[in-house]
Amino acid sequence: MSGRGATARRLVVALPYLWLMLFFLAPFAIVLRIALSEVASAVPPYQPHFEGFSKLGEFLSGLDLGNFKTLLDDVLSGDSLYGASYLYSLRIAALTTLFALLIGYPLAYAMAVAPKRWQGALLVFVVLPFWTSFLIRVYAWMGILGPEGPLDKLLMGLGLTDEPLRLLNTEAAVLIGMVYSYLPFMVLPLFASLQKFDRSLLEAAADLGATPLTAFLTVTLPLSLPGILAGAALVFIPCVSEFVIPDLLGGPDTLMIGGVIWNEVFSNRDWPLASAIAIALLVVLVLPLVLLQRARVARERAA
Amino acid sequence: MSEAARTGAVPARKASPGSVRRAFQPWNDPAAKPLVSFRNVVKRFGNVTAVDDLSLSLYPREFFALLGPSGCGKTTLMRMLAGFETPDAGEILLDGVDITKVPPHRRPINMMFQSYALFPHLSVADNVAYGLRREGLPKPEITRRVEEMLALVKLDGLGKRRPDQLSGGQRQRVALARSLAKRPKLLLLDEPMAALDRKLREATQFELMDLQSELGLTFMVVTHDQDEAMTMADRMAVMSHGKLVQIGPPDVIYEAPATRYVAEFVGDINIIEGRVASVAGDLVTVESATAGTVELDEEAPSLKPGEAIFVGLRPEKITLSHDEPGQGVNKVAGEIWDIGYLGDFTMVQVMVGGEGGQLLKVALANRTRRIARPFAWEDKVWLSWDVEAGLVLPP
Predict the structure, then answer these.
(1) Helix ranges, chain A (H)
(2) Nearest-CA neighbor of B52 among B90, B97, B100?
(3) How far B134 CA lies from chain A's nearest CA (Å)?
(4) Structural domain boundaries in chain B
(5) CB contact under 8 A, A198 and B117
(6) Per residue in A13-54, pLDDT tens?
(7) How far apart are the first and last CA of chain B?
(8) Which overall architecture, per CATH, does domain B268-393 show?
(9) What is the per-residue pLDDT across B257-294, written as a single tens digit (0 to 9) for each?
(10) Which has the closest alpha carbon to B178: B160, B153, B158?
């Protein structure tokens, strides 16, 4: 192999790393640095400030884990706003993931078994909502779910309910908005995994005595597990820190962690605490994923 | 080939295949009850008729091969038997019971798929156990049967592997073990050897025949490979455009094909066009433009002088010589145009009837290792054959 080829190869490998360094690691380092600082009436509103390498020691000794300690004490105290909104975020994200899976799986399955010439069009329909602003779509849901909105009118017109449901500003409204917004992220990986699925395996299962339901549970479902996991991760992770949907469709009791961070930054001007919350969230989210991945790799190696 | 087969652990068939086959002819026994009967079955896809008013009976313990070019409807016929396709008309009986509308998972028929269709997420043992689990057998029984099946196909000790950790030949054996595990009344094999290389294919063909006679099962093989069908089958059917053109034991199909299509599809054959000159008892005399006068020993009382017919002549039944053969045989002079050396035999193409005549293929067995062969390009030669060699084919 020529030296030039090796250099070119290294460069190609280096590019994605460079990208991650610039746009993931560097911002993360900045947030971490703010999380280790303390509030100050200054611009930006925290200290210490970095004043050159000559005063690096002073700068570093000014950083501490105070915000994390505050956060931990608060969460451990039991009656904690932060703890409650963490848990609530996880709950909403879990429910959203569940509903997205229940709706998305049949949808993706139907798309995967549809004639090839329709699949392109169906795929376009799934991603079509992305062509409109996310905010506008959430506002539209405000209208639909609102008092005297079309949904209420329809249900009352059909005689299914006697009075308005008052869905807006409830948890149900938040869930509807979340499931609606994140459904494509579930459908796309599921579709990709179900489309690759070899249908002769279902014939083999039927041939060996499996009913259609058993064949689905023992063959289709396990083989689409990678798609399910990918879709669940793509929905769950952004849902935990979702801020706009609970803010617009939710009410006073649907405070998610994204809203808490927003409050800390813009109302309390406590950037360090907000950063600490954000990092704690990252740990809560990323740690299980890393462990899961490790377990999978270990299992694959064993097999 | 298997150790068991080599040491003679598998009886009867190996010792005298001919005699066993001759004795087993349930299709000629009016008292024999068929295991499977197709009755006037029709299957259409859009405006294509894949299976056209077809009737067929398979008998218990029979090894039946369905032979035909791709698109002839043979796979559709098999899929209807497995339950993956429903006939548009007619009925399919299994042991005298109409199973036309029975879904695949309730049929005591198993199939070995051409692609094998092994479950990639399950181990070899779990693949084999899949059908047994659906029956709800107790766990120890399942374990025992799986081990038995893996031993049967000589995959002992590979139960924990996954399909993607196996070779093509091993995967084929897993598929076979899986389809045999439920002890089906009838095993369907869809192009079972298509993905194997030639050596492995030959060994597997004999193993499959041993297995079938050992277990006393009924096999139906779909294949486009005539060697495979002829080697393994008790009886074979040649299919074309949704219809069975001829059904019979392989030697009958080869030596007495019913139509020109069958004659040309199974094996190599020279077709000579001609007109009947005379019929005297069993002796038919045919005048042809290319091969001159051809005499055939054929029971064909319906033939009339002047009728246009085809004479079929297998290449291995023709003798080649430099000198003109004596009286009393069919003979024609020609010139060698091409010699194809194929190892076990040599295929010589001879132009007969002069320039613009007809090329006839002659197969010469290479009985010696002599490199200098007696025939060369452009040699003037004589072709001769017995009166029993040729056969009359309806136009």
Answers:
(1) 3-20, 26-35, 56-61, 66-76, 81-113, 116-127, 134-145, 150-157, 171-195, 200-207, 212-215, 221-223, 225-240, 244-249, 257-262, 271-302
(2) B90
(3) 6
(4) 3-108+184-262, 268-393
(5) yes
(6) 889 899 988 998 999 999 999 999 998 888 888 888 888 888
(7) 43
(8) Beta Barrel (2.40)
(9) 999 999 999 999 999 999 999 888 888 899 998 888 88
(10) B153
Q: Does residue B219 sit in helix, strand or coil?
A: strand
Strand partners, B239: B244
Q: Is residue B72 within 8 Å of residue A175, measured between CB atoms?
A: no
Which chain A residues are closer than 8 Å to B179 by Cβ?
207-208
Nearest to B113 among A204, A215, A219 (CB): A204
SS3 B385: strand
The token duo for B356 is 């613009």
**Prediction ipTM score:** 0.81
Task: Please name the member of A200, A203, A209 whose beta carbon is closest to the beta carbon of B134.
Answer: A209
**Domains along the sequence of chain A with CATH:** 81-269 (1.10.3720.10)
CATH superfamily placement of domain B3-108+184-262: P-loop containing nucleotide triphosphate hydrolases (3.40.50.300)
Contact yes or no for A131/A239 (Cβ under 8 A) = no
